[in-house]
Amino acid sequence: MGKNGVKISVVVPLFNEEESLVELYEQLSKAVCSLEKPIEFLFVDDGSTDGSMQVLTELHKKDPQVRVVQFRRNYGKSAALGLGFKEARGELIVTLDADLQDEPHEIPKLVKKLEEGFDLVSGWKKIRNDPFIKKNTSKLFNFVTRKMTGLRIHDMNCGLKVYRREVTDTVNVYGQLHRFLPVLAQWQGFKVGEVVVKHSPRKYGKTKFGASRFIAGFLDLVTVLFITRYTKRPLHLFGLIGLSSFIVGVGISGYLAVERLFLGQYLSDRPLLFLGILAIVVGVQFVSIGLLGEMITESRKDNTDYSIKKTLG
Length: 313
Description:
This protein is α/β, with parallel strands linked by helices. The protein folds into 2 domains: 3-229, Alpha-Beta Complex (Spore Coat Polysaccharide Biosynthesis Protein SpsA, Chain A); 234-299. The protein has helices at residues 18-33, 52-62, 77-87, 107-114, 132-149, 165-170, 181-187, 211-229, 234-262, 271-299; strands at residues 8-14, 39-45, 66-70, 92-95, 120-124, 161-164, 192-196. Helix 5 (132-149) runs parallel beside helix 8.
């Protein structure tokens, strides 16, 4: 059992969603009553500038199960989720967006899937009710992420997820890495599953999706790939790039040296000469960066990056 006897915490990050909050609360109350477990609703207001906080205040007065945390300004979804994970009291933690596109009645289905032995279960919006651009950029993003990370789920960024407490206590959410929580959980050794869920069209307000988020998502993917594969062995990444560049540079320089010594070719007007020198210099620099990274890693070797599932005795 979680803190204060709470079994399930429903964490809802939100930004300017005043129109949907009452309806969301009512749907959540109906959805989780079938679970017959002690529940709390934790709303994290990410610096809303509309009347969201006033609505949440009224909900809290009406229902003591409703808890609210408000940021002074907008920090982003990762910060809201990170605080929600920290403040949640439940043994299981459910997350969903506040725009009513995630269906609360799907929560029992995800909890049931979790009880099959999974540590994190993510929703899969198989049929999306989104604008054409958002729908297709999301498909591209998920396809690339699957190929790059090896995690075979279809919807990395679905807001509707269920976590065991061990996952939220272990995975560090910062920046905009909330998109990759399943990847980060799998990297820590947790078992990740997926369930098809219904996705509703947006009923109130406007989508917060934009081109900048799409670009940021792929930059964050590079971050995730690095921290999950090379944080403890940076020379493997930088050294591979550097060694490849160095070998190309030496090969070009060797070829030009043969031409000069045996064929009498002049090199002063050969752009290939400068390319060979550049490749050697870049190769040395990348290897040096990798070695510096190894030195930093060695100095921080007491910092653990593993999670323990169980101890006996």
